[in-house]
Amino acid sequence: MAFRLEMKVRDYECDVQGIVNNSVYSNYLEHARHEFLHAHNIDFAGLAAEKINLVVLRSEIDFKVSLVPGDLFYIEVEPVRLSRLKFAFRQKIFRQNDNKLAIDALVTGVSLDTNGRPFLPAAIDRLFPSTDKP
Description:
It is elongated and about 45 Å long. By secondary structure, the protein is α+β, with helices and mostly antiparallel strands. It contains 3 helices and 5 strands, in the order βααββββα.
């Protein structure tokens, strides 16, 4: 089952059209990824302090339905293994009152060591299902 985080749209997150600004969805998605890690006893800031940096390589976002001020919504986060070193988060945002899909996203990342080279620490490795890819 996917990790789930509930949130509410704040007025200041909306643009002149009265809908959530498209850039704000990236913040929602990032916050949900950090909460997912926290729920699995991984501290994002703690990793950075240890010189382990989780970085986004690619973010694909399909906008389906606009959220408006006061909307309650939830974000589902599902970890996906792409290769031996690359991982992704399949993320979906749903409007809570009718469960309509607002955002469908795939955020691809990698972990970098102190030399900026990709590697996968055990704590991150265990979060992502195995793949047949080398």
